[in-house]
Every structure is written in structure tokens, then in C-alpha cells.
Write a structure and sequence with these properties.
By secondary structure, the protein is mainly α. Helix content is 65%, strand content 4%. The longest helix is centred in the middle third of the chain and has 25 residues. It starts with a helix and ends with a helix.
Length: 274
């Protein structure tokens, strides 16, 4: 009995499991015991051995240790809500907001709010104020111009290359995204316009097949959409004209009109921030 217990201990996992993963080894041992008890099978099979000419039963793959469940859904929802509030001007540049106060506003605990605000601090939208909360960053027109310049340096060459290589039918598939920006602008919905604007640019750049480019460009685009306290927001007519540039850009890409593509993209970067 002691030898049997030793063999059983040797097959135990080096870490505990719970739930269905914990039952997998027990099921495997039960199945093995059932095979050993089948009539007509010798001691070799009881010991897990086999004779020549018989197929070798595949050993079950080891069950990986269970990973902890990532509970980021609440934090991510709060993060998107805060980004929308930033774009919409509900969070005012220069003002300090406390985590508990925002948590009460959203009806959640303070933890996901603080985590979301920490993420915004990494992105440069807010800055930490010790023992008080987070201050919405006050950016200058110079910073806005610098963002537009960097975006142009990255995206213009990519779009010119795509204009030479992407078939017209692929560009036509993006027209609903361009129309969505126009609809949001017509309603004066700046937060939704910001979302659809990023979606359109992501779809265009995604045709380059470069995930790193997509991530960097999207981050720069988001930063350029945060309002500046010293710069007035675009009037309704200007927002509508800005949205119309997406459709004009698609037309130029379909026609492979490279000078127009370059001009539209540069103008769009310089004039779409609000």
C-alpha cells in the first residue's frame, strides 16, 4: 500500500487546481483504473506497460495552471467614458477631479476610476495631483501644431503608398465610415465625431498591415482631439466641412490623385483638432 501511495503522489501536480481543471487528473486516473480492471488484460496493462503490436495510448496533455481572471471591463468602460468627457469638454482643462467624486458620478467604486485616470495620465491627458486627484492637462496651441506635424510625417507617406497599391473597391468599402463622420458632424455630436474620425483613419491605415503604425497613429490622433482651453472649438459649419474631407480623401484615393491626397491629409490634420 505504501508503494501504491508513493506512485500516486508522484503523479500529483506541483500546483493546486480548482474547478474543471482540478477534475481532469481525477478523470484520467479513473479511466486508467477502469482499463486495468477490464477482463483479459494482463499485469503489464495494469502497470501502464504495453506489448509489441498494440497501439500506445496517447498521454493526456498537461493541464496548464489556471490564469487569474482579468476584471478590466469596468475600468475600460470608465476609461472610454472619461475620454468622451474629455473630448466633449465635460472635463475642463486645468480643473482637478478626485477619484471618489468621479466614482460617485459613474456609480462605481473608486478603484476602476483611479486605474482609468492613471491610464489617461500615461497618455498625457491628465496629471496626478498628490492627495487631491487628477488635473486635466492644459495644452498649448504649439503642442497641437506639433501633434499635427508628427501625424502628417507618419500618415502622409503611408497614404500615398496605399493610393498607388490599394484597389478602388477596397477604398469604396470605407465610404460608410466617412459618411458616419458626416452624420455625427451634422448633429453637432463632437464626442461621436471624434470616435468615427478615429475609426475612419484606423481603417485607412490598417490597409498598410502594420500594427505598430496603427497603434502609434491612433495614440497621436486621440491626443490631438483633447480640447485646449485657449483654443475655441470648431463651429458647427467648420465641423461639417472637416467631416466632408473624409469623403473627398476617399475620392482622391480611388482616383490615385496623389497631390490631392497629400494636400487633403495635411489640411485635415491641421484643421480637425478642436
Amino acid at each position: 500500500m505504501e508503494q501504491g501511495a508513493a506512485r500516486e503522489r508522484a503523479t500529483e501536480r506541483p500546483y493546486p487546481l480548482s474547478g474543471d481543471a482540478a477534475r481532469v487528473p481525477e478523470q484520467a486516473r479513473s479511466a486508467e483504473q477502469g482499463r486495468s480492471a477490464e477482463p483479459g488484460r494482463g499485469a503489464e496493462h495494469a502497470r501502464g506497460e504495453h506489448t509489441h503490436g498494440e497501439p500506445v495510448a496517447a498521454r493526456p496533455a498537461p493541464v496548464p495552471a489556471p490564469r487569474p481572471v482579468q476584471r478590466h471591463s469596468v475600468r475600460d468602460q470608465i476609461l472610454e467614458a472619461l475620454r468622451t468627457a474629455l473630448v466633449g469638454g465635460e472635463l475642463v482643462p486645468g480643473e482637478v477631479y478626485s477619484g471618489p467624486a468621479l466614482a460617485e458620478r459613474f456609480g462605481v467604486s473608486a478603484t476602476p476610476v483611479r486605474e482609468a485616470m492613471q491610464r489617461l495620465a500615461v497618455e498625457g491627458a491628465v496629471e496626478v495631483v498628490p492627495n487631491r486627484g487628477f488635473r486635466v492637462t492644459e495644452r498649448t496651441p504649439r503642442e497641437l501644431a506639433e501633434l499635427a506635424e508628427v501625424r502628417a510625417l507618419i500618415e502622409v507617406p503611408v497614404m500615398l503608398r496605399l493610393a498607388r497599391t490599394v484597389p478602388a473597391a477596397r477604398w469604396a468599402e470605407l465610404r460608410p465610415l466617412a459618411e458616419a463622420t458626416g452624420a455625427a458632424a451634422a448633429r453637432g455630436d463632437r464626442a461621436h465625431y471624434a470616435e468615427t474620425d478615429r475609426a475612419f483613419h484606423r481603417a485607412v491605415l490598417a490597409l498598410a498591415g502594420n500594427e505598430q503604425l496603427l497603434s502609434i497613429a491612433d495614440d497621436l490622433h486621440r491626443r490631438s482631439q483633447w480640447p485646449l482651453i485657449s483654443v475655441p472649438a470648431l463651429r458647427h459649419g467648420e465641423l461639417v466641412a472637416d467631416a466632408a474631407e473624409h469623403t473627398a480623401l476617399l475620392d482622391a484615393l480611388i482616383a490615385q490623385d496623389l497631390p490631392v491626397v497629400q494636400s487633403l491629409v495635411r489640411e485635415h490634420f491641421a484643421g480637425s483638432e478642436y
